[in-house]
Design goal:
- The chain is α+β, with helices and mostly antiparallel strands.
- It has ten helices and six strands; from the N terminus they run H-H-E-H-H-E-E-H-E-E-E-H-H-H-H-H.
- It has helices spanning about 15-25, 30-45, 50-55, 70-80, 110-115, 150, 170-190, 205-215, 220-225, 230-245, and strands spanning about 45-50, 85, 90-100, 115-125, 125-135, 145-150.
- Helix 1 runs parallel beside helix 4 (about 70-80).
- The longest helix has 23 residues, at about 170-190.
- It starts with 13 loop residues before the first helix and ends in a 5-residue tail after the last helix.
């Protein structure tokens, strides 16, 4: 399989094999394994640890704005030892990330700053609170999710079995983490850089939003408006036109 979500007890993607091979001789807690699984998902979504990016950027292929998964990039990056900080007696983990873009992206200070984020994973009882935040001085919002550690990583390691057989429900984990952390963050970054997000709702020409949003009621427009500043603007425009005598 190419993606973590397609992994099974018998077959796992190369990026997961590479990650477990790097750490097989270390004693790692279930929470730390879950953090490393989240990093694998970060790679699949076009993010990479900062130091690894600096070392391997000359070998990386550009990632188009309408996609994020690039198999050769993921394979190469997963072979590198990820640098992350273990904090507060191993109850929190921090990884500095950089988002990959296409070959036409600028490389000035403003762009680089917009592409930098920090992934924090904090153990709270049997939960792992995970946040993905832009680095200062960005004023853009971050994203977070709470994950049950035992739901995805078993505490017991079977004798003479590969470590990845401790992992469970990777399809669910993949969906939750991508939908709540990496995809909205990448979309936010690209929007900030005025990159066209086609094919996506946020990549449509401005003139089409009115034709689409006129079919939504007020509560639906409020939901759409919370996605991004751009959709918030167009949802308010649709509501304004409705109040002026547009379609009800």
């Amino acid at each position: 399989p190419l993606l973590l979500e397609h992994a099974s007890l018998e077959s796992v993607p190369d990026q997961l094999k590479n990650l477990t091979d790097q750490s097989k001789d270390r004693k790692i807690s279930s929470a730390e394994w879950l953090t490393l699984l989240i990093y694998v998902l970060a790679l699949e979504c076009g993010f990479v640890e900062e130091d690894v990016f600096a070392q391997k950027r000359h070998l990386l292929q550009p990632v188009p704005v309408f996609s994020s998964f690039h198999a050769p990039n993921v394979r190469l990056l997963s072979e590198q030892v990820v640098n992350y900080a273990s904090l507060f007696n191993d109850t929190a983990f921090s990884i500095r990330l950089r988002t990959l873009l296409n070959k036409y992206a600028r490389e000035d200070i403003t762009v680089v700053a917009a592409l930098q984020t920090r992934l924090m994973a904090i153990i709270l009882g049997d939960q792992l609170m995970v946040t993905l935040s832009p680095t200062p001085p960005s004023k853009q919002p971050g994203y977070s999710i709470s994950l049950s550690i035992g739901r995805y990583v078993l505490n017991i390691q079977a004798k003479n079995k590969p470590i990845y057989q401790r992992f469970r429900k990777l399809d669910e984990l993949s969906y939750q983490v991508k939908q709540n952390l990496f995809q909205p963050m990448r979309s936010q970054q690209l929007t900030e850089l005025n990159q066209t997000l086609q094919p996506s709702l946020q990549g449509l020409p401005d003139e089409l939003y009115g034709n689409i949003f006129k079919y939504l009621d007020r509560s639906q427009l409020n939901v759409v408006g919370k996605v991004s500043k751009r959709l918030n603007f167009h949802s308010k425009e649709a509501e304004r036109k409705r109040l002026q005598g547009g379609r009800r």
